Amino acid sequence: MKENSQKTRTKGPLVIFMVFAVIWLVVIFFSSLQLNQQADRERFYEGFSISWFLLAGITPILVGGAFFKFILDRKNSN
User: Fold this and answer.
1) For residue range 18-61, what is the model confidence (pLDDT) as tens digits?
2) What are the residue boundaries of the structural domains of the chain, listed by start?
């Protein structure tokens, strides 16, 4: 019974983190689109900033995932 409650406690924050990560990636994806500011524009978007997407989108998720893995490994070793 005690093992089952520990698994539930660890999965709750992980699920919340995963939901937040998906929302974060969607927001950062749209903020990475570069708008064409010219008045006589043919296209609304000029391009995509891959460096901003990697820096602000992927890096925090990788750091958070590594943190959760560290916490889970630490709990499993006890």
Assistant:
1) 999 999 999 999 888 887 777 777 777 788 889 989 999 999 99
2) 36-78
Token reading at 18: 């995963």
Nearest partner of 7 among 77, 72, 74, 68, judged by Cα:
72
Unique residue bearing structure tokens 């089952």:
4
In the structure encoding, which two tokens stand for residue 65, read together? 């995932």
**Overall pTM surpassing 0.85 (yes/no):** no
Q: What tokens were used for 33?
A: 């689109």
Q: With contact defined as beta carbons under 8 Å apart, do 6 and 75 qualify?
A: yes
Task: Residue 49: name the closest of 24, 26, 31, 72 by CA.
Answer: 31
